[in-house]
Structure formats: C-alpha cells, structure tokens
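Entry type: protein chain
Record version: 2
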Amino acid sequence: MRNDLSLQQTIDLISAVGSKRTVLVQGHMGTGKSSILRELAKRFPNHAPCYFDCTTKDLGDITLPRIAAADGNDGAYVSYATNEELGAHLHRPIILMVDELGKSNPAVKLALLRLMLERAIGSYTLHPDSIIFATTNLGAEGVGDLLLAHARNRLTVVSMRKSTPDEWFDWGVDAGIHPTVLGWVHDTPSLFADFRDIQNPEENPHIFHPASPRAAFVTGRSLEAASDILHSVQAGTESQCVDEPTLLAALAGTIGTAGAADLMAFVKLSGDLPRIVDIIRDPLTARVPKKPAAICLVVSKALQSMSDEFIDPWMQYMTRLPSEAQAMFAASARRDKYSKRGIVFTNAAFGKWCFENNYLFQ
C-alpha cells in the first residue's frame, strides 16, 4: 500500500516541519513539484524564495574559496563563499527548494547534506525560521534519480501522487487552461493514471510508462503546454493561424500521438458550442450541444467566462442541460479557491437551484 500525498498535503507537511526537517518529495514527472515553492512563498511572504537546480551544478558551484586571511598569529585560513542561489548570504528567513536532488552529481549530493540536515554550509548558518525541501522523480521512472542510504536517512522522504482529474480540472479553471483541454480531462480520467497500477503499457497509450517509453505523453505539465498551443492558434493574429495537420503535429509533439488524436476530436466539437454572447442574448434559444463531451466543454467555458453580466442568463441556460452537467458546474463553483465563487454564490437564481437540487450533493 502506497502512502502517497496530494500536492496540497505535501505543501501542508513542508509548511509544518520544513524549518526543522528537510522533506524530500518524490513524484511523477510533470505533476507540479516545482509549484511547491511558489505556493509556500504565498504562505510565508516574509521568507525569501530560493531555487537551487541540482542538475546544473558541480561541486565548485556550491562554495568557492575567498581570499586567504590571517588571524594575527601567522595562522592563515581560507573562508568560503556560497552560491547565491542557496540564499545563505541573505541573513533572513528563506524557503530553499533543492530541485532534482536525485539527479545531481554525487559530489553535489554530499556537499548539500549538511545544509539539509543542520541548516548550515561553510561559515553560514541559516535563519532558524528558514524552510528547506527537496524534490526528485520516482526511482521507478528510470530517469536517473538515485540517493544512497546515508543521504536518505538525513531526510524525510514522501511520495506525491498525481492530481486527480477533478483536482486538475478545478485548478485549470482558475489557471486559464483552454476549455477544450478541460473538457478532455473531465471526460478522460485515465489521463492521470499511475503507471505503477498498469501492468501492460498498451492499456493506457496516453501516459508515461517505463516499460514502453514514449517520446511524448500526457502529464499535468504537457497538458498545460497543449492548452497554450490551442490558445495561441485559436485566438492569435492571422500570422499565428495554422492548419489542422500542423496543429495535430504540434500536439503530438507535446502530449503524444494518441493524446493529440483524442484532443483534436474535442477541438472539432468546439464548432458545436454556443458562444457566450449567444447565451447572454437569449439563453432560452441558444444552441445546446447534443454530445456529452461538447456539453462538458460548455460548462468548462462558462466557469472561466463567469461575470456579473453572464450569471443570470447562464442560470437560465444551464437548466436546459442534463442534470449531470448542472451538477458539474455547481461542484466546481462551490470550491473555496474558485476565483469567481462570489459571483455565483450571491446570485439568487443559483441559490434557488441549489435548494431545488440539493439531492445531487447528498
């Protein structure tokens, strides 16, 4: 049984113990490990965020000797200056992210052990409120992440799972992920499957699997990249327009051949969607898609496009959708972190809908 933590649980753990113990986060590639520093910086605004990329460093990049000095009794000595990315010279609380520890040069691993255990390096001692954590990929991914026993014993090692489709969908609504990508994610939960649960790689052609390496595949990171591509080619200037084969090739190079083909099917569905302006003008006659996937795209688009002007006509339009789609909207809108939650929850029509459809949430 795996004791995998969610991204939020991982952040909570580092927040609680990171000033005393260094947490090493093991996780799948492209699942948001690097976002931990940004989220911690929001929680601790008086700390200086510091990012140290181990994969680009050698031993000489950790500390360098200063000019020799003397103590007055002919006892010359050499002091050492540390790399500024470590933040030790700031003399204030820091949040230090030691990224890709498992892939670093063995000498770099050794040089960082004292810093991660004792909060000291060279002649510097970190502020006692400083937080340190490290990240690395899962060893089972086979991408070169190794840590010897004596080093691992100095750390608190936890595994971070992938986001669930619902977690990533909710994050994507506020992050501006393209509605087509959101709709695909909602309709295809296998995109976030763990390869350790899949014996035959062919059972899931979308994700990374070490038993059958793919040049490109779906991760949270590559889905965001696919979203950027769709935003650019669909809302760009004439010079940014590309034809369908070009778009398919770009997506295949981002999320893999199987993923690109499936996502393109959702792209083609977008022609069946009503425009936001059509819903605002006449919510009772605006087009309602017939395919479930297209209906999911409508809800995704509505969540991102929500405004004071849109909420009333949307509530009229929404009642024309299947109950599952209505529940999908309400479940996403009720999240504390949904940036437009206030617009929805202060609307009288939404309050009435919740009262009449409370059974959907029991």
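Comment: The longest strand covers residues 131-137.
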